[in-house]
Amino acid sequence: MEILGFTWNYIVVFLLVLTVLVFVHEWGHYWVARKNNVRVEVFSVGFGPELFGWDDASGTRWKISAIPLGGYVKMFGEGGDADDTDKPKLTAEEKAVSFHFKTVGQRAAIVAAGPIVNFLFAIIAFAVLAGAIGTAIPLAAVGKVSKDSAAAAAGFLPGDRFIAIDGEDVNYFSDLRRIVSANPNKPLSFVVTRNGQQLNLNATPTASFRKNDEGVETEVGLLGVEWNPEFVEYERQNPAMALWVGVQRTYFVTANILSYIGDMVAGQRGTDELGGPLRIAQISGEMAKQGVAEVILLMAMLSVNLGLINLFPIPMLDGGHLAFYSVEALLGKPLGAKAQEYGFRFGLILVLMLVVFVTWNDLVHLEVIEFIKGLIT
Q1: pTM, full prediction
Q2: Are residues 107 and 166 in the same domain?
Q3: Closest residue by Cα to residue 8 from 286, 276, 285
Q4: Chain centre to alpha carbon of residue 302
Q5: Domain contains 245
Q6: d(CA 204, CA 137)
Q7: Catalytic residue ranges
Q8: Is residue 239 part of a domain?
Q9: Which residues constitute the domain of residue 80?
Q10: 366 pLDDT more than 60
Q11: How far apart are CA 290 and CA 300, in angstroms?
């Protein structure tokens, strides 16, 4: 049974998550290509030999391939220079459905559609969770007590749940933060529950200076406790608010990724947090154990990652193609064949190096290297 559970959580769920995200991404390319009257020859989920497939009425070969670690859409005429009208020799009908005879704007829209649909998928997934389950509202409970803080001096412990402060009822962590911040250096009386018993504790928030939303430095009180993630209350949202929550969360995840990359480039954070397929499989397994909602949450976050990474201006990725199309729009003609060839070679090398690096990170994180060393020594 353990083997079946491991196989389902860490392999099957991972492949299902990856398959859905790849399909969503490639469907974006496919849909916009068809809207621009481009003939799509192949829509493949996975790489390598075809396991099974079928042809639709428009001539597209839909197939599932043997290596389920990606996918692609093959469009008629893809890969040529738009100004090369002689190679290959095409009839007027073929040119009308050829990718490289479309305008630069149409080609850019087709390429950008994949990442854009990834972001839209994330918004919808976050919105579904907000509507069906609700958004988590942190309750006023202690998760961690900072050393040498007012809370430590007063005897607060992890797990304490706040009931009232100076006679004012407290339910949410935002209530706790509001009251404490407004009372620097002022003794406060706290009522908490601990192991089912009610306790009275007294603490004086320490004073600290912080800038408010207007950029004005003000004095605030600090208690020295962090929120306990085990204490939350879920509030279901109506469809309009759920959609807005989806937009907010997608923006938040995107901003966090860009912030991390910026810190990494500046040398303020390490690269050990970068993960690849093995790390994603591990996280998928852990989320699968918690339930369907957690898997949907993971898919939403991974969809943002996939969309954002594909927009990076690296040849071989969608962002690299968009960069070439931007140059083409400025110059009025595509870059030369040699320039594009060297660009794609550089992009391929860069992508392969990144794959090797994140896989090594995965092996180190999962302690596979240490395990192998142990076997050898």
Answers
A1: 0.76
A2: no
A3: 285
A4: 4
A5: no
A6: 26
A7: 26
A8: no
A9: 2-133+273-376
A10: no
A11: 16
